[in-house]
Please model this.
Amino acid sequence: MRVQLSVISLVLALCLMITRDAIADAAPYVVGVAYMHGEERRIPELEAFVGEAYRRIGMNVVFKYSPPMRDISLANDGEIDASAVRTKYAVAKYQNLLVVPEPLFSSLFAIFFVNDKFDEYTIDDFKSLRVVCVRGEIISASILENFGMNPLFVPGLEHGIKMIKSGRADAVFTAESVMKGFFKDESSSGIRKGRFGVVVKSYHVVNARHKDLIVPLAAAFREMIRDGTARQLVGAFSDFVPSPYERDH
Model:
């Protein structure tokens, strides 16, 4: 009897070791984040928001930062598991990316400038100006192109700001949330927002092999928006979190 118990104990111990080693060896679930402003800068608020949604469905994730186009390609190719936040337009041409149908942010894409005379400009007026767009910001570029504008592409928002302040460009077109993240004190930046703008919603996207996560993740994000956790976690970006009544149908 003692021999049998010893054997059973040994088998259980081995199973525990194998399971523990398998967990340790399992590849981490990686969520991609596109560099903000085209530069390598972490976004802890976004990490907290997305990370909490996965925690609520019993998963831990790690974050990998890449340039915008690289991030979305990695997610589509399955080299990483998901991309933290993307627009439906940005992922439309990628066959292996699935949208979690709960909007995380609602951002105004707008014209920003330093010259007061542009305050009253319409979209037709801006067509004659030198408008800067950060390379890799797919939505910004597509909106401008849809309005018949040919943007000047720059590697990062900082470059665009320097260009309009030095007179080498007239305006920058980007998301209001991106501009807010760049300037901690917008009132002293000297940057003004024009009247022209387009509201675009952003979502979490996963590689198709994780399709079973779409429903639980949507529920987790929905609950976080409903109970106020989302706004609390994203801090300065809380104004861009949609209300519980702005859900897609």
In short: Residues 7-25 have pLDDT under 50 and may be disordered. Strands lie at 29-34, 61-66, 82-87, 97-99, 105-113, 131-134, 152-154, 171-175, 192-207. The first helix runs from residue 2 to 25. DSSP finds ten helices and nine strands in the chain.
